[in-house]
């Protein structure tokens, strides 16, 4: 079964903080009609698999005009080609892949192993994604017209604070606890638009256990 409530959230960011725990993530607050909204960006995996990420500056989104025409707030998306839905394996921009496995950098999770020098290096590398997201957040807040577009699964928690999570690749999971999330045209990402500079930056996150060779249902092909 695919991820639930696949959506894109567009809004004005106002704050961010790290949420520690089993599934550490960076939490961004977005202001938009119906909000405020919470955006949960994974900076560590739940199952201990290593995180892959890419920060793409000078990015051009697929269907840019349609994206810019969206109202601020949460918009439900259909998981199919030809719309705003994202797919790490299938989406293209000007005939080229939107993102590839080769563009992704490894973010190590096993910080406590190795020599002290290795542990120090891994600690520094493990903060790379967090620091990059913080930098982008601050740049967007500084731009009065800056907007973050967060693709993933819409949710409502017990406190009725609406938000979005699963902001990462949602296909290619091997047999196990996350197999149920596999699906095509339902991947998550962050797109940051700074109108004052006329620039886009994209943040892509995946997990090393996820295959980039998937069938039409998002399941890995052996």
Helix content: 10-25%
Radius of gyration: 17 Å
Number of helices: 3
Q: Which spans of ≥5 residues are poorly predicted at pLDDT below 50?
A: none
The biggest beta sheet is recorded as: 5 strands, mixed, barrel
Strand percent estimate: 25-35%
Describe the structure in your own words.
This protein is α+β, with helices and mostly antiparallel strands and 222 residues long. The chain has one domain (6-207). It is 14% helix and 33% strand. The protein is built from three helices and twelve strands. The strands form two sheets. A five-stranded mixed barrel has the order 1-2-3-10-9. Strands 6-7 form a two-stranded antiparallel ribbon. Strand 6 (92-93) and strand 7 (96-97) form a beta hairpin. The radius of gyration is 17 Å and the shape is globular.
Short structural description:
With 222 residues, the chain is of the alpha+beta class.
Strand and helix map with partners:
Layout: E1 6-19, E2 25-31, E3 37-42, E4 51-57, H1 64-68, E5 73-76, E6 92-93, E7 96-97, E8 105-107, H2 116-126, H3 128-142, E9 147-156, E10 162-165, E11 189-194, E12 199-207
Parallel strand pairs: 3-10
Antiparallel strand pairs: 1-2, 1-5, 1-9, 2-3, 4-8, 4-12, 6-7, 9-10, 9-11, 11-12
């Amino acid at each position: 079964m695919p991820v639930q409530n696949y959506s894109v959230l567009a809004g004005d960011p106002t704050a961010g903080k790290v949420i520690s725990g089993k599934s550490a993530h960076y939490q961004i607050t977005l202001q938009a009609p119906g909000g405020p909204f919470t955006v949960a960006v994974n900076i560590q995996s739940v199952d201990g698999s290593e995180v892959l990420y890419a920060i793409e500056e000078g990015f051009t989104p697929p269907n840019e005009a349609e994206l810019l025409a969206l109202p601020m707030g949460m918009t439900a998306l259909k998981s199919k080609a030809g719309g705003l839905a994202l797919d790490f394996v299938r989406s293209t921009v000007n005939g080229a892949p939107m993102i590839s496995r080769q563009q992704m950098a490894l973010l190590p999770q096993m910080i406590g192993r190795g020599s002290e020098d290795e542990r120090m290096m891994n600690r520094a590398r493990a903060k790379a994604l967090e620091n990059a997201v913080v930098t982008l957040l601050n740049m967007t807040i500084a731009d009065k017209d800056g907007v973050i577009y967060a693709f993933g699964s819409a949710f409502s928690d017990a406190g009725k604070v609406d938000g979005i999570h699963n902001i990462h690749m949602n296909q290619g999971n091997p047999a196990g606890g996350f197999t149920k999330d596999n699906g095509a045209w339902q991947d998550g990402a962050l797109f940051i638009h700074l109108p004052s500079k006329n620039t886009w930056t994209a943040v892509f996150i995946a997990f090393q256990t996820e295959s980039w060779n998937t069938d039409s249902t998002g399941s890995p092909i052996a």
